[in-house]
């Protein structure tokens, strides 16, 4: 069962221009400023005077810049672009007891991943993201969303040396994520997103992800919005099972596949709120506002406007920064236009998208 | 007395400096990957690292040494993705792993390529007594058929036959080698249908008959189903290879009990996909477990290696596993293995 919570109202801006409100957000990562990539390398250069303290300052600066960039796009909820994180598994593995790094392994061609090993029981030492959240929350004028790599992905994208089964490792990690979410909530976080890209490659494990989510939300107040992000895959293999996940919102990459899979979610009825990807992160062309509006209407086939969240397909970190900005600005503009059309009764909720013929 | 031969499946991890040097020289995108026509600088870098991984296998105490297959950007699909009449297209998932390769779309006749033979020629010069220790590595005909897309032959049976003939032509051009390992993970992951399984042994024989070396058909990612195993047993090869790390190894034993096996066998005893380094004692126990379960047969020879290709591993753990395998074969003192 989904959490019986209507916790999206807290993100409704007081000066929102329309009666309808489609919550706009980002998945998390964002194009890093080029100088940040440079200084990330510089700190490892023994000949450079650039030290860890300078890097901390650079990360703070970058977090300010990207948070502000999200606000300038007009997004209702913002992230710091995950500018402090190097990679979605490595960042957490460096902070979780029990992980070790042995060196890069091949993903494809010359693309490598510093795949960690779980060589001992996993444990929680100190908060992973609380400092990051507090900093962003202080500099942001909009509510801040906190993306966390989920236990299924943290477990699957590592070598398991220590646990009898992958499942046991994942549940162990889920307890740690639960602890982290508690800390974030204590620090004031109201919007948490669990990222589980690994589910796309092994959809038969949807029950393990569900059990892990049960552990993650255990004891978490229902006023806290908890989302789940899943990227491209064969969604028919995780639907309708994901309706049982204890989350408020499920964020899906669908634009990249031209919404060919959208009908998967129309029967049976979609239970959580839908966070719909409406711009393609694998395409460096900024979609025009009208195209994005048509994409948004695809979401209305699945959920009514009051349960629709608008987001990009996935993280934007691989796009050129001006393209990332253009996509977000157009996404927000398209969303506000769709809201106005809904206010004016110009969209038929029963048939929001014209049929091909 | 059973001879224990310490070896590897080939497709080794690139040394870490090679990862950065070659990505710098070639690039990261799919059109930057190996085409078989690389220039001098890239070829020179590969030559240097080929020497390094051959030295590493020899110094670890292996009885058979592979070229390393460091150029195989597309893993087992490499012999096709470097072929002139093949278009390496979109990136597709490599079996049930978080790894990807370029889909080889065959758009013309699969005539002779010579890419793998050229690699082996270079390796033969680096290996001590290549006729007695060099192990050639290729995908088996079924796995290569399974990994490829046909845009030319138009008929699956014809395409399967053409792939077997293509591999046979490549083997014919190989320099002297002691062993030829044919990788056949697709027999487990996507077992052949009725038509294909009927022609499986013929296809393997087409390739195997082109060499005087001992031919091993190695299978992994689990156990073969009964029908596939029974047909594979008809192939005229020295040994079949089994994944003894996989959870369903009892099914492998059941196949062997039911249909017998060759006089030699290849045993995947160390996990090629996990960094936990098994001790030489653990590996020895796995070999003994296998022998104990097949009491009716004393094997002439047992090849010992990782179950899968080891490119999934970081280099330090791969090195430790090679040493443990050599120790399990009795080639080095287990006490000296640092793992």
TrEMBL record, chain A:
Pfam families: Meth_synt_2 (PF01717). Its cofactor is Zn(2+). The keyword Zinc applies. One of its GO terms (molecular function) is zinc ion binding. One of its GO terms (biological process) is methionine biosynthetic process. InterPro entries: Met_Synth_C/arc, UROD/MetE-like_sf. Gene3D superfamilies: 3.20.20.210. Keywords: Metal-binding, Zinc. The keyword RNA-binding does not apply. Residues 23-336 form the Cobalamin-independent methionine synthase MetE C-terminal/archaeal domain. PANTHER family: 5-METHYLTETRAHYDROPTEROYLTRIGLUTAMATE--HOMOCYSTEINE METHYLTRANSFERASE (PTHR30519). This is Methionine synthase.
UniProtKB/TrEMBL annotation, chain B:
InterPro entries: Cbl-indep_Met_Synth_N (IPR013215), UROD/MetE-like_sf (IPR038071). Keywords: Methyltransferase, Transferase. GO terms for biological process: amino acid biosynthetic process; methylation. Residues 86-288 form the Cobalamin-independent methionine synthase MetE N-terminal domain. GO terms for molecular function: 5-methyltetrahydropteroyltriglutamate-homocysteine S-methyltransferase activity; zinc ion binding. Pfam families: Meth_synt_1. The keyword Methyltransferase applies. The keyword Methyltransferase applies. This is 5-methyltetrahydropteroyltriglutamate--homocysteine methyltransferase. The lineage of its organism: Archaea, Methanobacteriati, Methanobacteriota, Stenosarchaea group, Halobacteria.
